[in-house]
Amino acid sequence: MKSDAKVVKECTSSSTLHLEVALANTPPELRDELRARLLRSSAVNDEPQEISPRALLGELRTLASEDGTISQIQVQSLLDKKEVEIPADALMEQAEVEGVAVRIANGRWMFFE
After folding, report:
1. Most buried by CB count within 10 Å: which residue of 28, 78, 82, 110?
2. What are the C-alpha distances in Å from 3 to residues 8, 89, 109?
């Protein structure tokens, strides 16, 4: 990428990216009309937002205590809030496998720096 390139839009799903690319390639005077039609005819607003495991772990790190520990209840609470249908233990077991966290007690983990 060239040094003068800039990010003009960040998309969280492929359907949103598709919409934004279509709008970027449309003359400015037609964009509002095209956006309205595409939003009516597609499920862009109905599509559930997917969150990556990396993003989840990042949010969990911010919820962890000063010493980097987090409980199963805190993990499950975030998963429920984000409407992620995975058990807290499963997510944290994956974090253990990847070397991001270590289990320090039953239902309690500590993140590595």
Report:
1. 78
2. 14, 43, 41
Helix (H) / strand (E) containing 21: helix 14-24
- Give helix then strand counts, H and E, for the chain: 5, 3
The pLDDT of residue 47 is 52
| pTM exceeding the 0.70 threshold for the entire prediction | no
pLDDT digits (tens, 9 = 90+) for 61-84: 999 999 999 999 999 999 999 888
Q: Tokens for 99, please give them.
A: 């070397």
Give the integer Cα–Cα distance in Å for 74 and 82. Answer: 12
Burial of 103 (0-12, 13-18, 19+ CB in 10 A): middle
**Structure token digits, residue 41:** 């005819």
* Residue-averaged pLDDT of the chain: 85
Q: How many angstroms separate the CA atoms of 60 and 24, rounded? A: 35
Provide the CATH topology of domain 53-111: Arc Repressor Mutant, subunit A (1.10.10)
Q: How big is the chain, counted in residues?
A: 113
Domain layout of the chain by residue ranges: 9-49, 53-111
